[in-house]
């Protein structure tokens, strides 16, 4: 079973898993996985090993930070790492050993980061310079696969 199929099945099972009676299921927020990609993903005629599929990666438990939607103008950037964010922290969660995380949030737009040794990491921008934008809509879980790839070559 490939990694993408495992990810989708894990997210489905997590979404419908029995919940503790004291904690009702989230009706809206972010449900995601953390995938770590490191190494050479570049094709080449002389490679001894087979090229890893782009979806390859490994499970990577991490601390996840969710901020109000954050723009490049509101941070100090050092490559894919960010510091001195001038937006408000909304939630912080640690993914499980299976790489899954879930954050209950009000409807709105948010930016998602992982805590790395170099600072807060995110590798997506929209056309307006918003960092890893995720929109949460009412009564829905938004699914994301947060890929940490600052040590990967494509």
From TrEMBL:
<protein>
    <recommendedName>
        <fullName>Carboxypeptidase regulatory-like domain-containing protein</fullName>
    </recommendedName>
</protein>
<feature type="signal peptide">
    <location>
        <begin position="1"/>
        <end position="17"/>
    </location>
</feature>
<keyword id="KW-0732">Signal</keyword>
């Amino acid at each position: 079973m490939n990694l993408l199929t495992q990810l989708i099945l894990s997210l489905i099972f997590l979404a419908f898993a029995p919940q503790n009676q004291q904690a009702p299921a989230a009706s809206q927020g972010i449900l995601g996985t953390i995938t770590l990609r490191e190494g050479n993903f570049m094709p080449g005629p002389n490679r001894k090993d087979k090229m890893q599929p782009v979806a390859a990666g490994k499970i990577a438990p991490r601390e996840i930070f969710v901020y109000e939607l954050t723009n490049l103008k509101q941070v100090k950037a050092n490559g894919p790492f960010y510091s001195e964010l001038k937006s408000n922290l909304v939630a912080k969660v640690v993914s499980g050993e299976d790489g899954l995380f879930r954050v209950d949030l009000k409807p709105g737009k948010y930016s998602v980061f992982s805590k790395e040794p170099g600072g807060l990491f995110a590798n997506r921008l929209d056309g307006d310079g918003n960092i890893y934008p995720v929109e949460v809509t009412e009564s829905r879980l938004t699914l994301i696969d947060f890929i940490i790839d600052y040590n990967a070559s494509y």
